[in-house]
Design a protein that fits this description.
It comes from Tribolium castaneum (Red flour beetle). The protein is α/β, with parallel strands linked by helices. It is built from 14 helices and five strands. It starts with 12 loop residues before the first helix and ends in a 6-residue tail after the last helix.
């Protein structure tokens, strides 16, 4: 299943300004911390650990990854590197068997460097299968906003038109399911919107959390909103990912990508704002009605570990930005 970014998933100007204020506040806190007063870029740059000049973007759905993918495609022309993405699939499996992980590791490593490979899949430790460590990147988004976006994305009429064209034999879903409102789903206690701690769902049907894309293929990653999955996901980010961007902090994300992975992302900020953003007007998805803060707060109560993971990634991004000391340079 190919997941495409819709216009409401792109950060607005107001969101970016709010993000900038949060960055400045976070940097001030980090710089006055008793534990660490200053970082150097090499201390928070896993790009230096890469053993092959291949970027592996195991993109999370509904976090702005389609926009980043388009940005990378344009950068591949400007910066002269290979651009490779997984084909559209009838059923997309994000958790793989060890055998399939080995096949994927071999595929990623088969491309001529420099290059980028993009696929919806859980973190795969390529070095575990005897191949050189690539440069891992990804994006995250506020987990509650993301799950709402996904809820309406899979119910949008154009989504099923595209699926039907690609795979004519796929049956159409029940119209009652298509018309089901997210707020009513939550307030009525519908199983689809309960988000129970420890509950396990397999495959692409488990759209509830983005942390699974970082936790990996281990069975400990399956139960929803659990400490084990959270800690494993955090550890993977710290040990393997060069950059995990944040949709709500897009300016910071683009800056960190440029500075920490310059071979691939030099010019990212310019291309995004002068080409992608300017010529792709931001419009609200007509199929996504507003959701009240009351309902969002109900959902947040069951997303505690997901929210903690999101905040962890956000703080790490800010730390990487702070290490650049750009605010102290003229």
């Amino acid at each position: 299943m190919e997941v495409k970014l819709q216009p409401e998933d792109i950060a607005t100007g107001d969101e970016l300004e709010t993000g900038a204020e949060e960055i400045r506040a976070t940097i001030k806190i980090l710089q006055t911390s008793k534990e660490v007063t200053r970082w150097e870029p090499y201390q928070v740059n896993n790009t230096l650990k890469a053993q092959q000049n291949i970027v592996f973007f195991n993109r999370v759905p509904k976090v702005g990854s389609q926009t980043l993918m388009e940005l990378i495609r344009r950068l591949s022309i400007r910066n002269n590197f290979g651009f490779h993405q997984d084909r559209v699939q009838r059923v997309e499996t994000i958790r793989l068997s060890p055998e399939d992980q080995a096949v994927l590791s071999s595929l990623v490593s088969s491309y001529e460097p420099p290059g980028v490979y993009i696929k919806h899949v859980c973190f795969t430790n390529i070095s575990r299968f005897g191949f050189p460590e690539p440069i891992y990147i990804n994006l995250v988004r506020d987990p509650v906003e993301r799950v709402i976006s996904w809820y309406y994305y899979v119910r949008a009429p154009w989504y099923y038109v595209e699926r039907k064209i690609a795979f004519p034999d796929i049956p159409l879903p029940d119209p009652k399911w298509l018309k089901k409102d997210f707020e009513h789903c939550v307030l009525s206690g519908d199983r689809e919107c309960k988000y129970l701690t420890g509950e396990t769902r397999e495959g692409i049907g488990d759209h509830r959390r983005q942390s699974m894309f970082f936790c990996g293929h281990h069975s400990e990653c399956l139960p929803f909103n659990t400490p084990g999955a959270l800690e494993r996901a955090k550890r993977v980010v710290e040990q393997h990912y060069a950059v995990v961007g944040v949709l709500e902090d897009l300016n910071t994300t683009l800056t960190v990508l440029e500075k920490y992975i310059p071979r691939f992302f030099t010019g990212a900020y310019e291309i995004y704002w002068n080409e992608i953003s300017r010529f792709n007007p931001i419009n609200k998805n007509a199929f996504k009605p507003p959701v009240s803060e009351t309902v969002k707060n109900i959902v947040r109560q069951n997303f505690t570990k997901e929210i903690e993971f999101y905040q962890f990634c956000k703080q790490r991004l800010h730390k990487q930005y702070s290490a650049l000391q750009l605010d102290n340079k003229t």
